[in-house]
Amino acid sequence: MTNSDIDHLTQAMHKAQALKLVLDSEFDALKKQDLTAFEVLQAQKLEILNFLAADELMEKVKSHTEDQDKAASSVAIWDQVVALMNECRDLHRRNEILISHKLETIRGALQTIQSPDPLNSVEIYDRLGKIRPSRGGAAMGDA
């Protein structure tokens, strides 16, 4: 394994650490409902993920796993990258659960606002100007 390969693995480890920090910041922004900060973090996260998913990096990793003369330091770096990416996966899932919960809360609030309230029903008049009895409740005289 060349120094260039080790450099790529080291860069991957630094990017994985940066991704972990971005995911933690994303969670804080979601808790505070700071959508501006959340959108800025999305751009940063996308940049990091693009680097980690780059074909060049994947080729280095593939050659690393096939190389019989692996250096101990590169194995240790790769193990750290894998561990960090597993942590990032878990942090991403945590953020996804928070977003889903917030969306469900918003949907519930919208449904409550949009659903008709039986206590505030609109009275409807017929052609003769008399109040038409409501369909679901008792007539006014019966109440």
UniProtKB/TrEMBL annotation:
<comment type="similarity">
    <text>Belongs to the FlgN family.</text>
</comment>
<dbReference type="GO" id="GO:0044780">
    <property type="term" value="P:bacterial-type flagellum assembly"/>
</dbReference>
<protein>
    <recommendedName>
        <fullName>Flagellar protein FlgN</fullName>
    </recommendedName>
</protein>
<comment type="function">
    <text>Required for the efficient initiation of filament assembly.</text>
</comment>
<dbReference type="Pfam" id="PF05130">
    <property type="entry name" value="FlgN"/>
</dbReference>
<dbReference type="InterPro" id="IPR036679">
    <property type="entry name" value="FlgN-like_sf"/>
</dbReference>
<keyword id="KW-1005">Bacterial flagellum biogenesis</keyword>
<dbReference type="InterPro" id="IPR007809">
    <property type="entry name" value="FlgN-like"/>
</dbReference>
